[in-house]
Every structure is written in C-alpha cells, then in structure tokens.
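Attaching the record inline, Q. Sequence:
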Amino acid sequence: MDTIFLGNSVLHWLKALAVFAVVLLLLFLLRTFCRKKVKQNPNPKLLTRLLSQIILPTALITAIWLASRLLQIPEPVRTLLRVLLIALLTVQIGRWADLGLSHWIEQQIEKMPDDDYNRRTSLRGIAIIARILIWLVAVLVIIESIPNFDIAGIIASLGIGGIAIGLAAQSLVADLLSSLTIHLDKPFEPGDSIATGDFSGTVEKIGLKSTSIRNLSGEELTVSNSQMLKTPLRNFSRMEERRVSFTIQIASNTSTEKLALIPELVEKAFEGLENVRFTRAHFQAVALTGFVFEVVYFVTSPDFALFVKAQNLINYRIYQDLQNEGIFFSVIPAVPL
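Structure, as predicted:
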C-alpha cells in the first residue's frame, strides 16, 4: 500500500477511486430515478425535472474533481480539471435555468385564455430574450475561468464603439425588462381603459418593446414599455365604483327657507336611479356670486357611459326641481371687453 505510483501511494489511489465511483454512481442513480418519475408523471415537480436533466459529462467531471482532492497532482492538471468543472457546471446550471424558464412560461400560458394571442406571443418573445441572456452569462463565466484570459481587457478594447453599442442597447433592454414587469405584475391588460402621463385610452396590445393604446379620439398610440411605467398609472377598468363631486351656485337673493330645501331637493333627484348611490348635499360656502352647495354621489359601476348618462339625468332633475320651487342658479356677470 505504500508503493508510490505517479506521486501518490496505492492507498490514496484506492481512496480516490472509491470517491470517484461512489459520486458517479450516486449522480447516475439520481438521474435515472428522476427520469423514471418524469416518464410516469405527466406533470412532475420542477425539482424532479431539473435533476432528470443532469448531463453525464458534468457528473463525470464532478466525480473526477472530488477524487482528485485526495491526490497530489501537478498544478497544470489541477487547473485543467478546475476549468473543465466550471465549464460543465455552468452548462448544467444554464440548462437548469432554461428548463426552469420553460416551466414558468408553460404555467403562465396555461392560465391565459385560448384567444389571448398577444400575451402568449409576448411571453414567448420574453423567453427567447431570457434564454439569450442566460447563455450569454454562461459563456462569459466559462471564458472568465480560463487562465490568462482577460475578458475585461477585451471588453475595454472595444472602446467608444462598445460604449455606443451599450448605450443604444440600454433603451431596448429597459423596454424588455418593463415588458416582463408588465406581464408579471399585470398593472393593465389588453382591453383595459388606462391613463398614464399624457396618454389615455384602451390597451390593444402589449409587445416586447412597446404597448399600443387606442386613444379616445380614435388614433392609435404606441408607447414604449419603460415609458408606461415611469409615471403613476390609472386603470379605470378595475374601478369598482366612481366617486362624483360637483357644486351648484344658487342666486344670492334666495331666502333662508328656500336654501334649507335644497339638500332635500337634490337628494330627491337621485330616487329610482340604478347603479347610483347618493352620499350628501350640503351648504358649502358663500361666494361673491351666490351660495355654493356641494353634491357627492357614487356610481357603482366603472362604465363611463353609465356615469355620463346618470350625470345628465341628475343635472336635469336638480334643475327642474329647483325651478319648480322658484330657486334659481346664480348668474356670473359678463366682463366687458
């Protein structure tokens, strides 16, 4: 056992061989077991799917590297094993990340309606970009692990051209990440009526780089995804009810008795209206042009057309009831030119 072979005793070689065999056997059995589970179950757990994709070269180099820790081997050989280990482990992790991404995309698509082609296409496009980034990072990690290979120096040698490309790609990457954020957080979806910044309308399509909005006046607006998330966004389609507040000004020569009737007359104007809940009508202030009353109510539906119809009928009823009681609105005098 004390015989020296290639710089190591036979005992050390036997220990290293035992570690190599045990590690390789365990990884191979784990891979085989998980592959059988995947075949038996049409919807296996993500961890089982990942372990079933262990590649044999990765298992082999892992076993060799662990066994080599028990041996005295030349530094060039140890460096080569380290580079091979990093390269194959990086490829393995890249495959796992790719598989995890595919698993997540499949789950998201299953939750979508069959006719939601826009979001399906957007998700698949995001998956392509994500896969490119995954394998780009994997390549950089492998290159960085190679001795005497200065990747930072190569990137720096690109100089102004590299900076220009980076700046040009910055907005594209920002829009792609914003598209991913929109699909994950879902602040709006196609068909929603929204307003953000100077833009408002109905969302028609959410793409990889931009979102298409049909403006209230009919034209189509194309807004970058990053721009959509820079300012607070209002989603009117998710409104449960709409609060409405307005004021009316009564002529300053109206008697006290008539003023006391106004809240009751205003409340009466809301009787029998569907999807409308009256809140209050009160004497708010005294202005130079008359007496100001504030009216507050809720429309229990986000439908804008329903709100406009209700507002029109309420205004008509209030005007008619006030006229019947001899109560008149104040008149703002015209300013002579």
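The chain has ten helices and ten strands. The two ends are 116 Å apart (CA to CA).

More tomorrow.
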